[in-house]
C-alpha cells in the first residue's frame, strides 16, 4: 500500500521541479541569448543501480549497471522494482534563437556555435550568447551587468573612439584602427553548461573545458533573442499541473485506503 503513496509523492515532487524549470524559462523569455532548460526524469532504480569503478585514467567514476549484474553476495536477484520516477537533471537546449537587428554596432550575435566570454572584476569568467554590449566611462566594452567582454588578449576596450565597427571575423575597429578581436569559445557538451544568472553560463565537468573557436563569424548590429517559445512552455506548464493534480489525487486515495485498512484490522 505504501508503494502507491511513494509513487504518487515522487510524481508530485518531479512535477513541482518541472514547473520550476518552466517558470525559469518564461522569466527569461526576453533575455537576449538565453537558452531554455529542459528537465529530464529517471527511473529511481537507475540512480541506485550504480557502482564505483576505477577507469583506465585512474579516476573513480560511477557506472550504471543492471540489477542482475550487481555484485550481491549470498543473495539471488529475483527481479527489479522501481518505486518511483525522480528528477534526474535539467539540460540546456542549444537551439539557436532568432537574430534581431538593432542600430547599435556593439550588439553582437554569433553566427554558428559558440559563446562570448565575459569576466567580472574578480576574474570570474562566464559564457553567454547574449551579445548586448556598451562602452563604459573608460572605454571598456561591458555587458548590462558590468561584465567585461573578453578578447584574445583580455578585456576589450575602444578607448575614446567615437566611431566603432565590428566586422564578420570579430575584429573591433575603433576610429579606423583595430582595437582587438572578440573571443568566442565552445564546449564538447554545451548542453551541460550550468546557468549562473539569466543568460550567463558556467562550465561543468560534463560540459568540458572551454575551447577557442576558429573562423568566427559574427553579426554586428544584431542580437540573438531567447529560444524560449511561450506557447510551448505554457503547454508544458499545463501538462505538469495536470500530472501534479493527478498524483495528488492518487496520494489522497492511497491514504484513505490505508486508513480504512488500519481501521478494519483494528476492529477485528
Structure, explained:
This protein has about 270 residues and is α+β, with helices and mostly antiparallel strands. It folds into 2 domains: about 130 residues, no CATH class; about 130 residues, no CATH class. Helices cover about 25% and strands about 30% of the residues. About 5% of the residues have low confidence.
Q: How are the SSEs placed, and which strands pair?
A:
Layout: H1 2-27, E1 37-43, H2 44-48, E2 50-54, E3 60-64, E4 85-92, E5 99-101, E6 108-110, E7 115-119, E8 125-128, E9 134-135, E10 141-142, E11 148-151, E12 154-155, E13 164-166, E14 171-174, E15 177-181, E16 184-186, E17 194-197, E18 200-202, E19 211-212, E20 218-220, E21 222-224, H3 230-267
Antiparallel strand pairs: 1-4, 2-3, 5-21, 6-20, 7-8, 7-11, 7-16, 9-10, 11-12, 13-14, 14-15, 16-19, 17-18
Computed CA radius of gyration, to the nearest angstrom: 25 Å
Q: Can you summarize the main beta sheet?
A: 6 strands, antiparallel
Q: Helix proportion of residues, in percent?
A: 25-40%
Strand portion, in percent? Answer: 25-35%
- N- to C-terminal distance: 19 Å
Count of distinct strands? 21
Oligomer: single chain
Give me a quick take on this structure.
This protein has 268 residues and is an alpha+beta fold. The protein has helices at 2-27, 44-48, 230-267; strands at residues 37-43, 50-54, 60-64, 85-92, 99-101, 108-110, 115-119, 125-128, 134-135, 141-142, 148-151, 154-155, 164-166, 171-174, 177-181, 184-186, 194-197, 200-202, 211-212, 218-220, 222-224. Helices cover 26% and strands 30% of the residues.
